[in-house]
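Translate structure to sequence.
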C-alpha cells in the first residue's frame, strides 16, 4: 500500500448502532405503536446577549458552509484533500469533516484524500506545500494547523476560493489559534478562525458547529452517533475532561454521561500518544479514530486493530515524561519565566510544562516553558503554559505577549527568526503557546530572556552581607516529592489531555 493509500481512508466511517439507537421504547399494547421521532437539530451555538456571535464571525461561518456545499456540488473527478493536525483535537476535526462530506453531503469517499504533516512541520513549509500539491486536489481543507500569513497553500490557491479561473484551487483553513485581527492567513484561502470569540472554541468544536447543520432532519440520529462523540473527544483533548459545556458551547453533556469522563480521557490519551513518539506514528491514531464508532471501540483491542500500537506508545511516552520531569528549572532575570531544558526524542515538552505550572511559587512568575533540543535535529521545540501562581494573583497572562516582550528587545534578530520559521515567532494561544526555533536562534532568545541571570540586588548578584541576607526573599524550592513526583520513573503515568 502506498503512502497516499495508507493515509486516505477508502471505507465509509458511518457509525454502527449504539445503545441509544438500539433502545426500543415501551409500546402500549392498547394503542397502535408509532415510530419514534427523529431527534431534533442540536443547538450547536447557544447564543445570548453575552455571546451574540460565536464561535466565529457569522459571515465567515456562512461562507464556510457555502464552501462545503460548493465542494459537494463539484464535478466527481475533482479531488478533495483534508489536512488535519496531529493531536486529538485536530484528528477529531478531520473526522467530523470527513464524515460530514461523505455521509451528510454524499461525496464519494474515493474522492477524498488525507494528508498528515511530517514531524515538526506546518502547511506554510515549502516541502509541505509541494506535498499537498502532488495530490492534484481541487479542494483543500486544513484543520487545526495554526493560523499564519503565508504564500498560497498550493499553486492555484492564490486565485481565491470563489474564483472561476480554470487553474483555481479552493482552499479553506479551519482553526482556533491566534491570528491578529485583519490578517488574511494563507493567500487566497477562506479563513475560518475562532480565536477572537470567547470562549474560544476548539478546532473540533468549531468544525462541529459548522458541519452539524449540514446534516438533514432525517440524518439527525446518524449525526448524533457519528460526530457528536468525536467533538467531545477533540474538545476534551484541548480543554481537559473537566471542560464546562455552558453556553455558548453546545450541550454535549449527554454524550459525556453516556461514555464517562474516565473512558473519554483514556481514549484521548491513546490518540495523543503516537504523535509524541520518535516514530511520529500519527497515521495509527487517525486510522483508529476514523474507523471508530464510539470511544469504546478505540479502547477495545477487539474492535480496534491498532490498539496494541496505541497502548505501547502511551506507555513509552509515560516513562519518558517521568524521566524528563525531574529537570530543575531556571528563571529569567525578571522572574516572569521558568525554563526547563530537556533533550528527548519524544514530544514530552508540553506535558512537562503543564506538570510544573502548579509547582513553582515565585512572586513574579507568569510562564512555565519547557524547551526540547532533542525532538528535531538542529531545532528547539518549546511549549509554554501559564503558571498557577499567576492565575491565583488574578493576572490575565498572555503568553504570546510575554514572549514577544523579550524578542522585541532585538528587532533585527526577531525579523531574522520570523524569516527562519516562515511566520510568527510564537504560535498557539495566549494561554498555551510555543514555537520551533533553529538552535542558534533559541540560544539568542535564551540570552534575551536572561535565563539564570540573578535579579539586581540579590545575594547571587554579589551583594552579600547581613543586610542583604535579612531582606532576601525566600528561595524558590523545587521539591519533587512535594510536587507529587517520585525520585525514579514509574512504569505507568496518566496522560495529559491538553494539546500542545
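Result:
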Amino acid at each position: 500500500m502506498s503512502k497516499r493509500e495508507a493515509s486516505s481512508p477508502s471505507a465509509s466511517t458511518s457509525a454502527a448502532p449504539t445503545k441509544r439507537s438500539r433502545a426500543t421504547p415501551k409500546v402500549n399494547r392498547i394503542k397502535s405503536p408509532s415510530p419514534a421521532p427523529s431527534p431534533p437539530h442540536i443547538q450547536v451555538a447557544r447564543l445570548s446577549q453575552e455571546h451574540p456571535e460565536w464561535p466565529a464571525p457569522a459571515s465567515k461561518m456562512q461562507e464556510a458552509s457555502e464552501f462545503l456545499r460548493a465542494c459537494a456540488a463539484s464535478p466527481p473527478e475533482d479531488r478533495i484533500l483534508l489536512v488535519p493536525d496531529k493531536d486529538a483535537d485536530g484528528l477529531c476535526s478531520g473526522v467530523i469533516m470527513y464524515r460530514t462530506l461523505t455521509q451528510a453531503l454524499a461525496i464519494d469517499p474515493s474522492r477524498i484524500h488525507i494528508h498528515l504533516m511530517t514531524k515538526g512541520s506546518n502547511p506554510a513549509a515549502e516541502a509541505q506545500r509541494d506535498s499537498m500539491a502532488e495530490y492534484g486536489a481541487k479542494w483543500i481543507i486544513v484543520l487545526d494547523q495554526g493560523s499564519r500569513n503565508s504564500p498560497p497553500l498550493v499553486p492555484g490557491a492564490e486565485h481565491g476560493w470563489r474564483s472561476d479561473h480554470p487553474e483555481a484551487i479552493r482552499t479553506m483553513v479551519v482553526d482556533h489559534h491566534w491570528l491578529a485581527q485583519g490578517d488574511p492567513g494563507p493567500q487566497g484561502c477562506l479563513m475560518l478562525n475562532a480565536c477572537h470569540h470567547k470562549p474560544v472554541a476548539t478546532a473540533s468544536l468549531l468544525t462541529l458547529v459548522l458541519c452539524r447543520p449540514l446534516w438533514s432532519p432525517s440524518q439527525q440520529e446518524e449525526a448524533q452517533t457519528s460526530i457528536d462523540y468525536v467533538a467531545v473527544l477533540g474538545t476534551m483533548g484541548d480543554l481537559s475532561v473537566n471542560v464546562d459545556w455552558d453556553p455558548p458551547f453546545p450541550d454535549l453533556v449527554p454524550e459525556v454521561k453516556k461514555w464517562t469522563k474516565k473512558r473519554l480521557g483514556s481514549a484521548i490519551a491513546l490518540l495523543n500518544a503516537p504523535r509524541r513518539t520518535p516514530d511520529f506514528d500519527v497515521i495509527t491514531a487517525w486510522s483508529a479514530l476514523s474507523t471508530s464508532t464510539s470511544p469504546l471501540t478505540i479502547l477495545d483491542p477487539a474492535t480496534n486493530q491498532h490498539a496494541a500500537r496505541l497502548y505501547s506508545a502511551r506507555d513509552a511516552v509515560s516513562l519518558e515524561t517521568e524521566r524528563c520531569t525531574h529537570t530543575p528549572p531556571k528563571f529569567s532575570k525578571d522572574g516572569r519565566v521558568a525554563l526547563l531544558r530537556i533533550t528527548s526524542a519524544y514530544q514530552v515538552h508540553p506535558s512537562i510544562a503543564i506538570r510544573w505550572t502548579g509547582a513553582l511559587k515565585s512572586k513574579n512568575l507568569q510562564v512555565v516553558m519547557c524547551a526540547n533540543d532533542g525532538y528535531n535535529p538542529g531545532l528547539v521545540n518549546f511549549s509554554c503554559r501559564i503558571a498557577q501562581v499567576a492565575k491565583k494573583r488574578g493576572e490575565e497572562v498572555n503568553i504570546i505577549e510575554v514572549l514577544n516582550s523579550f524578542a522585541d528587545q532585538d528587532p533585527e534578530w526577531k525579523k531574522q527568526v520570523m524569516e527562519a520559521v516562515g511566520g510568527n515567532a510564537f504560535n498557539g494561544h495566549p494561554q498555551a503557546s510555543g514555537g520551533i526555533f533553529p538552535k542558534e536562534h533559541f540560544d539568542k532568545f535564551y540570552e534575551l530572556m536572561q535565563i539564570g541571570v540573578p535579579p539586581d540586588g540579590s545575594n547571587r548578584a554579589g551583594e552579600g552581607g547581613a543586610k542583604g541576607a535579612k531582606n532576601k526573599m525566600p528561595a524558590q524550592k523545587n521539591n519533587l516529592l512535594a510536587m507529587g513526583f517520585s525520585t525514579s520513573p514509574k512504569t505507568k503515568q496518566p496522560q495529559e489531555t491538553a494539546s500542545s
